[in-house]
Amino acid sequence: MTTTMSRTDRGRFAPGNPGGPGRPRRQTEAAYLRVMMTACPLDAWEEVVRSAVDAAKAGDHQARQWLTRYLVGEAEATAPRPTAVITEELLGTDPAMDAAAERLAKKILDRRRFPTLHKDDEEDERVVRQVKAELAAAEERRRHGDTASQAA
């Protein structure tokens, strides 16, 4: 019923076929993104966002949905069960706070447990700060270059 290519007789992928890696990104997508970024600099995008906020405040359902998707994101989980909420209250636990504390403490705990692996952390953090500054400067130059080309 399936061929050696894991397809049915009708040419469709057979159940259980893992598929491929997907379509690779094309250079044209990056080119279109560059054009969009040039045509819509951050100050113009800020106007779009402010307009959406004003519309959402005025009751525009689509504006609220658009802002929610970007600011809050899509819901990834269902609401907790009432018994779970009651249990957390009785135990005095807060799963979000616990997860945040674990995430923040991980770096400190890892440094204690594996000091030799973290001996260069300060230097690594300095390099990261330097690269961030260089990226911010490049973005600022790009923004000013776009503004200069638009004025000409």
Written as H for each helix and E for each strand, in order along the chain, the element string is: HHHHHH
Mean pLDDT rating: 85
How many helical elements?
6
What is the helical fraction, as a range of percent? 55-70%
State Rg: 25 Å
- Indicate the structural class: mainly alpha
Report the principal-axis shape.
extended
Q: Termini separation (Å)?
A: 65 Å
Q: How large is the share of residues in beta strands?
A: under 5%
Tell me the number of strands: 0
Main sheet characteristics: none
The low-confidence runs, each spanning 5 or more residues with pLDDT under 50, are: none
Tell me what you see in this structure:
The protein has about 150 residues and is an all-alpha fold. It has a domain at about 25-75. Helix content is about 65%, strand content about 0%. It is built from six helices and no strands. Helix 2 packs across helix 3. It starts with about 25 loop residues before the first helix and ends with a helix.
Describe what is shown at a glance.
The protein has helices at 27-39, 42-57, 61-71, 82-91, 95-113, 121-151. By secondary structure, the chain is an all-alpha fold.
